[in-house]
Amino acid sequence: MTEMPAVRGTLTQNRTLADLTWLRVGGPADWLFQPADAEDLAEFLRKLPKDVPVFPMGVGSNLIVRDGGLRAVVIRLGRGFNAIDVDCEMVHAGAAALGAHAARKAADAGINLTFLRTIPGSIGGAARMNAGCYGDYTADVFVGAQAVTREGERITLTSKDMQFSYRQTQIPADTIITHVTLKGPQEKPDVLHARMEDQLAKRDATQPTKDRSAGSTFRNPAGFSSTGKADDVHDLKAWKVIDDAGCRGAKRGGAQMSEKHSNFLINTGAATAADLEGLGEEVRKKVYDTSGLTLEWEIMRVGEPAP
Prior knowledge:
CATH class of the largest domain: Alpha Beta
Shape: globular
Oligomer: single chain
Structural class: alpha+beta
CATH architecture of the largest domain: 2-Layer Sandwich
Largest sheet: 5 strands, antiparallel
CATH topology of the largest domain: Uridine Diphospho-n-acetylenolpyruvylglucosamine Reductase, domain 3
Number of domains: 3
């Protein structure tokens, strides 16, 4: 068995991950590491044998961990990485801070990051996945980020390093973002807070926010530029092609495509990761058979199937 480096944070062996994901499925990780701070993380990675894979995990809002778990060290940032500070037009946030919290604190200071209010997940995840809605994306407000590489080197990332595109970036999967700086346009705080309340009301009216889901299941199939901006001429919606394939409300085991919004995959209470991923693949096949379009997963799927 590989000997793990000493840490100041918390290192747990054979840690089940289901309770750390919004879909509440998944087997155990070989190890779960929750570092005390960035230096604890860097020192751990420097000393961790190079053949041991690592997997950065946010708040599990956009993730299916397969039932057999992960043969890796899962790194999950916590209290040492959730501070949010505002300086003029800049918002400095730890990667573990929730996007919704950053949006509210920014609004208090008259900074418009309102699009983050309705996006589930952390600031680190928003940066890595170029999260966005209402026509705004993290790339639009990104200034820079601090990160730690698999080799334990602490680095600064620019927009050029991130290589933002629609719902993704090109930074290595085992590079862990620790802090993010964002800059948004200035507006009156009361206007920003009112806008967020309106956005929340619209979201709750159209999305299954009370169900166990991981947000949008599939990316919109076409019509987006390399910067992540929608092209209205060719703007196709995943929910529409799923509906056209007759998959709204489709079920497999404890998994279901939501009746309220057909691009939301939900755990009705007893789903396994295999149910969820299997249903998603069935939907992809039916969409391809009916439209010739190949839906791409927006939810990340990791780990091994159950034996």
